[in-house]
Amino acid sequence: MTILSLISPISLDVIFNRLSPIVFQVLQRFKVVLQSRKRADHSTRVQLREKIKEGRVLQRHSYDLYFPPKESSGDTTTHSNPIKCLLFFPGFGIHHSAYADVASLISMYGIPVAVVSLEPLRLAHAKLGGSIQDVRRILKSAGRDVAKYYKQHDNDKSKEKDNESVILEWDLGGHSMGGYNSLQLAPVVQQSDDEHLTIKLSKKDESLSRIGSQIIVWGAGNLVESVPNLQTLNSSDESTFRVLILLGSNDDLAKFTSHRQKRDLLRKLPRRSRMQTIKGANHSGFASYDEASKKSSTFSLNGIRDITLTDQQKETARRTADFLLNQ
Fold it and tell me: Which residues on adjacent β-strands are paired with residue 87?
């Protein structure tokens, strides 16, 4: 007796007529995910390897961590506490190493940057590596790495300095889908108690790693329905929460279709938020995956960049650092 002879006609009907469309739909969506995968350009990967050798970048399983240059890290006492840091989520299908160039530029302003790895699916979502629990786990690990880095490059190697506390404040950010994930985390952050948002890093001192109240969003925001209403987050203290929406003027993927759509987004953002546009910038220029994007089915939505990739990323880093450091 074969296996097929044990299957009734009704069972076959369920398998082929009801389940197969669902399976087909799942496979089609998975195909889109695979086709959207982009890795860093060759030159970016080469420079990343050099920065790792120099000790400017530390690669972990869950993130790549970009340190400020040694001459700017210096004595921890010369830095204001808390030290501003950025935890950053990649866009849909983009390998986290594609942000190596722009993350390095941000770190030049004295801001440590942790770019989250969302392997293998590369989808910034609460159930796929972008939840508040994932953020806390990275803050603990990356926080220890950053605290160690600052103490190692302290000008005074005394035992007293080794035990000096370092307070790290990690603001959230992301590109495209990663930006929406950061915005969706904001209500969770606001509703959590201080103990849940603050992580003790050392038994020897009072070094802490905690979640900040600023959000950086690149190339996103036009999908207004995906943005939570953040107007109410500052009901108790209007000076607390704020958002930077940074767009490219030539980005056809993240452009607003009407003034009403833009107005609806602004109505959802805290009052002290900003929306800025980089003239001549496109969608992929917030990272370094130009060659891969040309082979993508969504290339036409990427927009044609009227400025160099370097210029777009320098301006992105400058505006991001200015927002984070000058409240």
Answer: 114, 172
